[in-house]
User: What shape does this take?
Amino acid sequence: MTRREAGLFALVALLIVGTGVVQGWNSALLILNMGLVSALMALGVNLQWGLAGLFNVGVMGFVALGGLAVVIVSMPPVGEAWAAGGGRALAGLVFGAATVFAAITAWRRMPRGRARALAMTGILVGGFLIYRAVMAPAVGAIEAVNPAVTGYLGGMGLPVLVAWPVGGLLAAGAAWVIGKTALGLRADYLAIATLGISEIVIAVLKNEDWLSRGVKNVNGLPRPVPNEIDLQESAEFVARADGLGLDPVLASTLYVKAAYGVLFAVVLIIVLVLAQLALRSPWGRMMRAIRDNEVAANAMGKNITARHLQVFVLGSAVCGLAGAMMTTLDGQLTPSSYQPLRYTFLIWVMVIVGGSGNNFGAVLGGMLIWFLWVQVEPMGQWLLGVITAPMPDGSWLKGHLLDGAAQMRLLTMGLVLLLVLRFSPRGLMPER
Amino acid sequence: MIDALNALVVLANFVIVPAVAYGAQLALGALGVTLIFAILRFTNMAHGDTMAFGTMATIFTTWGLQNAGISLGPLPTALLALPVGIAVTALLLLGTDRLIYRFYRAKKVAPVMLLIVSVGVMFVMNGLVRFIIGVDDQRFADGERFIISARTFKTMTGLDEGLAIRTTQGITVVTAIIVVAALFWFLERTRTGKSMRAYSDNEDLALLSGINPERVVMITWVLVAALATIAGVLYGLDKSFKPFTYFQLLLPIFAAAIVGGLGSPVGAIIGGFVIAFSEVGVTYAFKRVLGYLLPEGLEPTGLVQLLGTDYKFAVSFAILVVVLIFKPTGLYKGASA
Assistant: This one.
């Protein structure tokens, strides 16, 4: 790490510490925790873009799949719902997968021609209708089980930390399917395909109530760290807080957030080390060679599509992992909160600003842009407050401008991205 | 016989008429995307927000006209405001090009770089629109609501089912036809249009024959502004204006452009209708149509709906994937894979 890079990280640290001093340590730790998660997402995207030049605009979908994994893994199973239609739902899913598999096999095995097209269409349409017939009663039965509280299958009741790698696996699976279809085509086609899959993932999360309660949200996800209330009731903790001169309520909130921060930092460091090792390995050099000159790499006997698929799956898995961590931190899965600008394009701003191709850059970009994203709103409020101060109170324009302050962050992010692209296209920490 | 007619009317009312209107809106949007791709050679992520901006400019003009007491009678006032909206959007796009895209064009960067740049533009435009008009739904259609209302149709034909055609749907189709005809006339018949096609086919040859590239690019942006604003206003009149919905239109519009073949104007139009008909058709519940068509006792008990309406994105996406796998150049030989 050069002195400049160390300086940039010190700057981010200073910004977060400054937030702690000015706005309180709870705010600072909140920014830090989400900053760490964002940095992880940026690392995933950087694997795809920085290392391989793949343009993935479906980050939101992979992040949401990670969130789904938390529900599936860690929530207690709803026995009644399983009894009502669990087996049938599983059978439906298996049948659906079998249909797709059969269609692909038919396509591969049969000779070219009209018969093949007809057979595949027939398998898909027939399979879809049977799938619907199997699934619909099961879904109805599951969703009828106490809909106000459950109305879904629940999860497996495993420790929530297990959900993190599972989130990565789920995202990797989705990425494999996408990669199989859209890799090897133009870069823009991959972009559109990933944009599409991310919207579909969100649509599934919003509508398949039997899976994760849809827009009714799953609340009260298990936590890997103690509850604030439990801490406040523990005599030992209160005594320790008193010893430090802290109010026990404040101390408990800080303790919990710090615990999350440590967990996230550990994951981030592990992934960062792995990414760094990959970047410097022969594999990493091959990936960059492919990125910089596909024709030459192909001539050297490298299987470009296969390598792209590999790195695409890996990067998406990192995004899924980060998504699972984020949902754990939130303690709830709220499908309607997934917005592409926030979960896809903002991550892109982080990667580009940090420096595409540089893993440390991605981490820096993630932390820095997240800090800006959080802090631009109050800054915008303040700025517009100053601008509108001379205007008479209650004037239409003043109210409108103050209302609009919330939108300042999009504007700012766009400007930051455009300025970096223009004046420092390789980012704050250029690739080496 | 009457049953068949009734079935046809239900189908027309809930599938054909809405899909034709929606398809025309998508086609206009896809034309913009495809033009940018053909001339400027990149995929513009900011297109949905360009549409939103153009619509916003038109809405403000509409409000101004309404306050001044000017209206078009039975037609929505927004049509009168459209030229102003287009002009404002054209200025914005030309400014964007001047400030941002021109720099990268001169450096001849890779198309994917321009795509990323357009993400930045998208953020800024999105922020601008939300900042100026807010994030809420805006309805700005006025004038006559229906060309034919369901009740008039029933009394006119004596059928059990009514067919309603909203004014906005009629206007959408008529406007789209006029715009497309004008665009094709421009591209095929005028000197400028020919120079644009030449530039799109082979940049170097076009430069050699004395075509001014900056002029071609400028005209492209003006055309894109017109297409995006018209598409956005028609969509907003037909449904309603909400910045986030416009952002989400990006997916069906891209799907339409790619299905038709990126860079091919005819393809963009066909693609728009393919996407619109599949979206509406797959998410429509055919219960009533089949109820009329099938013999007594065989009527379906369920809704006969293939997918819930919330999955309409899945439809554009599925079509997109099918085309990408089997015919990556699109229906009308667009850019190859």
Observations:
- Chain B has one domain: 2-326.
- Strands of chain B lie at 146-148, 165-166.
- The first helix of chain B runs from residue 2 to 40.
- Residues 2-326 of chain B form a domain with the ABC transporter involved in vitamin B12 uptake, BtuC fold (CATH 1.10.3470).
